[in-house]
Amino acid sequence: MPAMYHMMPFMYPPMYPGMPNAQPPPPIATAEKGRGKQMPGKSQKDNKKRRGKAKSSKEETPPPQADVDQNCSPELLLVRNAQGNAVRAKITLQEALPNLLEFAQDQHGSRFLQNKLDEASSEERQLVFDGVCSEDADPDAVLLAKDVSGNFVVQKLFDIGNPDQKKILAEKLQPEIASLAKDNYGCRVVQKAIGAVSKDLQVFLASSLQGNVAECIINMHGNHVIQKCIEQMPPDSVSFIIHAVENDTASLASHIYGCRVIQRLLEHCGAAQLTEMLERVLLNAETLAKNQFGNYVVQHMLEHGRLQDKEAIIDIVRRNIVEFAMDKHSSNVVEKCFEIATIGEHATQLETKRAQLIDAVLGAGDATSPLCEMMTHRYGNYVVQRMMEHSRGTERERIWRTLNALPIDYRSNQHGMHIMNALQKGFKEFTPDQSSGS
């Protein structure tokens, strides 16, 4: 009978020498019972997400937040459950009036009021105005104008109100117009008010801005209010804005918001009003033309300024033609010069200036010509194209001959190819007719 050997129980070897009490490695975690196998490379969390997409349609979804939130009136709760739909809510404006301000500050309540005000009777509208403009209103009209939902109700009141109602509402807002103008939501109410009230009330509202114009101009919200004043108010009523701009023209012209205000002034005010501002822009035109925001002011001055302003700017551009044409921002100014000297208000008087500008680009017509450098440049080639587009009469033939005589192979350059294509499409009268065999 063979000898029997006693089997020793298996012992995990120590993890490190000299560590007899080392514990065995923990068992590999297995998928929880009833959850299926874990996908390779996926965590259980990922699998849960995937399983979440395949939930049974019979599983109950969480109730809307409006059903859970009981901190509101029963009428507003109905509107919330109907998500602001005035028809589905099945309540009337009269029933909502006792909780008017609560409705106005609620997303769905605000939408309900706006819809109901469109079809409300004059008596119902008056009740809403009274509720918003009353002395003991909490929040008052100003705070409501700054509210994310309430501001839409105030705007609606300016839309549907009669002159007397709008006057009362405007008087409530007027002392805080400067504060509202710089508010994310309040600025919308101020713009709506300026566009909805009489000229006298516009001046009354704007009077609160007079000490805050510069601050509003450079504010991301306030600048829209200042622009609205310029667009909607009589030109002789915005002198306070013009004076504020005159005090810091160069800085505002190169500001992201200030440049917009100056553009609106150029569009809506006469040159006689803007004389000092125009002179200050001209004084800084060379710097502004190369500025990412200032170039828009110079372009607007070319479009809306006096003849002498346009001539002065074209002269500045002509003296710096290569530098300006190859700059990202001032190249737009050069293009605008060719445009306004051909199809603008003073085009006839600017024909000589246009010819001088073309001379500056073409130069001697050889390898030293600025044209050689510009036509193969990422920005300069657009200037050349605009010159070709706005050339007239004998200018066209001269441009065609110069381009064809240049001692460079601009056709091998991606920007030069744009010039070649423009030449072939726009100057066909100088191209030999290939079909005739000539």
From TrEMBL:
GO cellular component, as recorded: cytoplasm
Residue span of region Disordered: 12-71
Signal peptide start and end residues: none
SUPFAM superfamilies on file: ARM repeat (SSF48371)
Domain PUM-HD: 74-427
Pumilio repeats: 95-130, 136-171, 172-207, 208-243, 244-279, 280-315, 366-401
Biological processes, Gene Ontology terms: post-transcriptional regulation of gene expression
Pfam annotation, one family: PUF
Domain of life according to the entry: Eukaryota
InterPro entries the record matches: ARM-like, ARM-type_fold, PUM-HD, Pumilio_RNA-bd, Pumilio_RNA-bd_rpt
Keywords, comma-separated and alphabetical: Repeat
A molecular function (GO) term: mRNA binding
UniProt feature, compositional bias: Pro residues: 12-28
Name by which UniProt lists this protein: Pum2 protein
Source organism: Symbiodinium pilosum (Dinoflagellate)
